[in-house]
Amino acid sequence: MLAGNWKMNKLNRDLGPFFDEFAQAVGLDRDEELTEQVDILFAVPTTLLALAARQMEPRGIRIAAQNIHWEAAGAYTGEVSVDMIKEVGVTATLIGHSERRQYFGETDETVAKKTTAALAADVMPIVCVGETLAERDGGQTAAVVTRQVQAVFAQVADPKDMIIAYEPVWAIGTGRSATTAQAQEVHALIRGLVADRYGAKTAETLRILYGGSANPANIDELLAQPDIDGGLVGGASLKPQDFAKMVKAALPR
Ligand code: PGA
């Protein structure tokens, strides 16, 4: 899976031109089986969800929200529920992105609640975890990631189509990607935690994406790692040509 995270970027008027150029570059119109070989997803700002879903879901490209609230409805000014994103045709959501943890008070507890709400509504949660630079330098990477993952697993009996994204905070938007060895090591750790909680079969199929300065130049090497099943891409997903190159890198050869 190649997932783009647009963060707080782009307007509705950008969607048509972006997707036309992306579809052309990736060969979506020439190769009808493309989206059976690689899952393509874009997590877009709330105001873009309805139009993006209408344009792209019929073409096999999934549209995701970047956040949801865990309650179905109520007095939560400024928030959006899972039913609200579903109503406009959205089938997935990011949960617990490090920017939400860092700037908006997201905790392991709220991440777990949101994941439960998404799964209950049959919306695919992409749960983001990852250590800060201070935590890595302090030798805390495994402990932090284990804590973040287990907080979710404790509340989830059946992970269904849950996806986990490992995104070291120090690699996000910095141009400094984790080395493939660093990424693979944490991905293997996460897969082990999945196996411990849900069994070997689920561990084989549950997808773990890498995020943090993934780009056309390093994606091949990242995807070649045994426990990296795809990418969650910020900056490079804003450029249709770059993201198309990354999607192509994920195609089976
Ligand atoms: P980046 O962002 O690719 O720009 O580092 C990744 C992310 O935050 O999902």
Structural summary, described in words:
The protein has 253 residues and is an alpha/beta fold. It is built from 12 helices and 8 strands. The protein has helices at 12-26, 34-37, 49-56, 82-87, 98-103, 108-120, 133-137, 141-153, 180-198, 200-205, 219-223, 240-249, and strands at 2-5, 40-43, 62-65, 92-95, 124-129, 163-166, 208-211, 231-233. An 8-stranded parallel barrel has the order 1-2-3-4-5-6-7-8, surrounded by 5 helices. Strand 7 (208-211), helix 11 (219-223) and strand 8 (231-233) form a beta-alpha-beta unit. The longest helix is centred in the C-terminal third of the chain and has 19 residues, at 180-198. The chain is globular. The two termini are 15 Å apart. The model has no long low-confidence stretch (mean pLDDT 97). Bound molecules: 2-phosphoglycolic acid. 2-phosphoglycolic acid is lined by residues 5, 167, 172-173, 211-214, 232-236.
Keywords:
12 helices; 253 residues; single chain; 43% helix; globular; binds 2-phosphoglycolic acid; eight-stranded parallel barrel; alpha/beta
How many DSSP-defined strands?
8
SSE series? EHHEHEHEHHEHHEHHEHEH
Distance between the termini: 15 Å
Oligomer: single chain
List low-pLDDT spans: none
Largest sheet: 8 strands, parallel, barrel
| β-strand amount | 5-15%
Layout: helices, strands, pairs:
Layout: E1 2-5, H1 12-26, H2 34-37, E2 40-43, H3 49-56, E3 62-65, H4 82-87, E4 92-95, H5 98-103, H6 108-120, E5 124-129, H7 133-137, H8 141-153, E6 163-166, H9 180-198, H10 200-205, E7 208-211, H11 219-223, E8 231-233, H12 240-249
Parallel strand pairs: 1-2, 1-8, 2-3, 3-4, 4-5, 5-6, 6-7, 7-8
Helix pairs in contact: 1-3, 1-12, 6-8, 8-9
The structure holds 2-phosphoglycolic acid.
